[in-house]
Each structure stands twice: as C-alpha cells, then as structure tokens.
Amino acid sequence: MVENFHKPTQYSTDKFDTFEGGEDPAQIMRAAHDTAHALLEGARNSDDPAVLDRIIAYTDKNGIDSLAELWSRSSAGSLPGALWRIYLLRAVIQQDAVGTSLLFQRGIEILPTIDAAVTGAINPTGPEEIKGLADQILRGLFRGDFGVALDRAASFSRILSSGAGSVADDQELLNPERATELTTRASRYSLIGEDLTLCAKRFRAGALD
To answer: pTM higher than 0.85 for the full model?
Structure first.
C-alpha cells in the first residue's frame, strides 16, 4: 500500500456522486485481490487490537485515494470490490457526518423494511452515532461474521438511498439543483447496496474472491 501520503485525501460528496459502480474493467489486477486477502487475513489472525484500529482508520491517515488505486476498479462482486465500497461509505461519512446522519435518519423514518434493524442503528442517529455505526460495520468485516457485516453495510446503503431520495423530493420545487444532486446520490447508494448484497451472497456460497 502507499505509505508516503503526507495528509489524508479529502473525499467530498461531489466525488462520491461521480463514483461509477458496476462498470468494472474486464481484467482486474491480481494485486487488488492479493492485498484485499492479505489485509483481511492479517486483521483476523492478529490478537493485537491496535492492528485492527489502524486498519479501520487507514484512510484517516492515508486518504481514500490510496485504496482507490488498488480496489476501485475491481469487480463489484469481489472481495476488493466489497472492501472498497465499505471504505468509501466510511470516508463519505467522515467527511460529512452531519449531512449523512440526516439522510440516514430520514431513511429510517420512511423505509418500510427491516434494514434499520439489520444495521443495528441507534434511533435517533446523529453525527457521532453514524460515524460509530460505520466503524462497527467495518470492524465486523475483520473480526466478526463477514457475511453479516456485508448485510449490515448493504442495509446501511439502502437506508441512505431512501433518505436521499426523500429529501430530493422535498427540494424539487425549492432547489432543483440540490434535488438533482441528492437523486444522483440516492442512485449511488442504491447501487452500492445491491453490490454489497451480491457480495454477501457470494461469500456464503464460497465464491467471493
């Protein structure tokens, strides 16, 4: 991994809105898979809590772009693809915890599914709770049931998608530009949720590489 970043790369919501998921190259660099497996196995094989803390907070120090170079072009249904999407969600939350928590809270209020229960979210979900939840989900990948962590991340994404879509509807007449931005974001969150659900299914079938 890149070790020479002198400060974290800020991953703004504008960059998130341009993220293209699912349109992956036909040939994925083997390095992406090797590093994803090495990171996962290293975390699971270590009893040192500091190791896990460093892995969770890796992008805080090095920036999300250091992982993007490795994983962002990996197949949506692959291990590096799954890790990339969850780190991406966490990076967006760290950059705008207040805005993300508002979308998440709206999603919980209007989404008639069990997704809120699956995530284990505290209601109401404020900025600190949303950051804590993102860390819990990422931590679960490296310590808990990997499939459950993927399910939680997928539900997390669906809730954000629902919230962003609802707020976009509110803004349609008052602020069409903002409404368009939120609609785009809702689509991105929805796509990430679909990708992570696929990853969970592949993991349980022993086919997530």
So the answer is: no
